[in-house]
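Let us work through a complete example step by step.
Step 1: write down the sequence.
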Amino acid sequence: MGQSGKTILVVDDEENILELIRYNLEKSGYRVLTAGNGSDAMSVLEENSVDLMVLDLMLPDTDGVEICKKVRNSEKYDQLPIIMLTAKSEEIDRILGLELGADDYMTKPFSVKELAARVKTVLRRSGSNSSAGKQLLCIKDLELDLTRHEVKVANVPIELTLKEYDLLKILMMNQGKVLSRNYLLDEIWGYDYFGETRTVDVHIRNIRKKIGDDGLEEYIETVRGVGYKIK
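Step 2: predict the structure and record it as tokens.
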């Protein structure tokens, strides 16, 4: 079942996709609202309490990029979790993670069961974030701004992909705790992800390179045979 009757707004101009997503999310226990364009989506947001938005990138009036920016710049919904639907896959991690602040994305065509799993994961993650009550996470010169979805080292912006950002965020929010590879896989990639734990290692290596921690373990410490932690 859905998480305590959470409300999901689905924005897509294809009626069959709207109905397919609505049907499957309602079966999972969610309350589902729909909109066929950007203008209607903003109206629905203003008139309802929404817990997550599934947003198509290509809309007939205002595209998903602009809608995402409007949401992130609003006082009411700047923390609203967003899952982007897109027919484009090239550089989408960079686009979503750096420019839009979307929490996840799926490339069309997609599995509705996987979408439901992603919704559950993102809602769980956003719930733990809000309970923490922190907007700026700092470790030495490393800063992660939850509101702006930005990462800086010594005040210099660092470009991370969506998954790299989420991985660094969960480590920083659990400073001093050892997080296993399986736990990180579950939290970042979701229950239905069947990848290997090596996926976590690859992303950690990329993060270290980007924040100037390559091989030095100045920020991220490897706990051999277990996982990782932020010192």
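Step 3: interpret the result. The mean pLDDT is 83.
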